[in-house]
Amino acid sequence: MNPSENQGPSVLTPSGDDPPPGGSAPFERFQSLAHGRETLLRGGAAGAMLFAVGTDGRLNCGASPAAAAALLGSMGARAVGFSSPDPELLEEALEAAFEASPLPLWAELTAPGVGEREVLRLCRASTLLVPNEAERARIAPLAAQMTRPSREEEDKYVAAVTAGEIYWIDSAIDLSEEISPGPDFPKQILRAEDETFCALSLVIDTEEELSLFTEYQYMFKAPVCLSSSDQGMMIRAVHNFCGRALYDGNQGLDVAFIDRLVRRYGLIRL
């Protein structure tokens, strides 16, 4: 998807943040988290990655704003933004994303006539505010007086992402018994849900296992720890997983190889 038209005249930067060079602030609109992820894997987005927030507070693809920020931020996105005519939904999306990722956050408010209090809250929650064009003159003085809250020191928890949901994990997370996807993989997933664990441990060694894993990943309701005895299969499994997976080192894959997966896909090394 091509970048939008230059949005410089409509972008308002709260004090304390440097405005985009030359007043320009390109962004690209994405319909799904998978689309944004694919764009990053092909070489990156030109500017902020903007997603519409629905009336349920989630992206059009069903993912949470926090999951989008955590996953795309771990893969090298420059900024993530959210668009909505509802200032309350927009603020909630920004607050969730702020907790999940240190990325700059954009907010596009598409409806005119929003009250001053709501505008001030959005200015405080975002790095850059893109208001409805008709509202720029009214909102500019409000944006100029705001600063963003400082980010607290990071703790030991890391954000994993599975099926559009965010999961906060640490290095001591409990893994399920290792599962190799078989013909009854959906039943394997359901049975595993009855066990006491915090992350699903999957071993992908064959083409059939990779195919089943890719097809049924929408069923996962926990963080996913991936492993394989083969580097080629491991990278394909991580590539096919539309989330942020874990790796526990049990298969003894080359450290430099895993480092590349961490940088490219946001893989979390336990």
What's the gist of this structure?
With 270 residues, the chain is of the alpha/beta class. It has 2 domains: 8-144, Alpha-Beta Barrel (TIM Barrel), CATH 3.20.20; 158-269, TIM Barrel, CATH 3.20.20.
Could you explain how this protein is built, in words?
The chain is of the alpha/beta class. The chain has 2 domains: 8-144, TIM Barrel (Alpha-Beta Barrel), CATH 3.20.20.330; 158-269, Dihydropteroate synthase-like (TIM Barrel), CATH 3.20.20.20. It is built from 9 helices and 11 strands. The strands form 4 sheets. Strands 1-2-3-4-5 form a 5-stranded parallel beta sheet, with helices on one face. The protein has a two-stranded antiparallel ribbon with strand order 6-7. The chain has a two-stranded parallel ribbon with strand order 8-9. Helix 7 (207-216) packs parallel to helix 8 (231-240). The radius of gyration is 20 Å and the shape is elongated. The relative contact order is 0.11. The model is unreliable at 1-11 and 13-24 (pLDDT under 50).
Helicity range of the residues? 25-40%
Distance between the termini: 35 Å
How much is the average pLDDT?
83
The biggest sheet, with number of strands, parallel, antiparallel or mixed sense and barrel status, is: 5 strands, parallel
Number of helices: 9
Q: Would you count the extended β strands for me?
A: 11
Q: Give me the Rg, rounded.
A: 20 Å
Per-chain topology:
Layout: E1 27-30, H1 33-41, E2 48-52, H2 65-74, E3 80-84, H3 87-100, E4 105-109, H4 116-125, E5 128-130, H5 136-144, E6 158-162, E7 165-169, H6 185-193, E8 200-203, H7 207-216, E9 224-227, H8 231-240, E10 246-247, H9 255-265, E11 268-269
Helix pairs in contact: 2-3, 3-4, 7-8
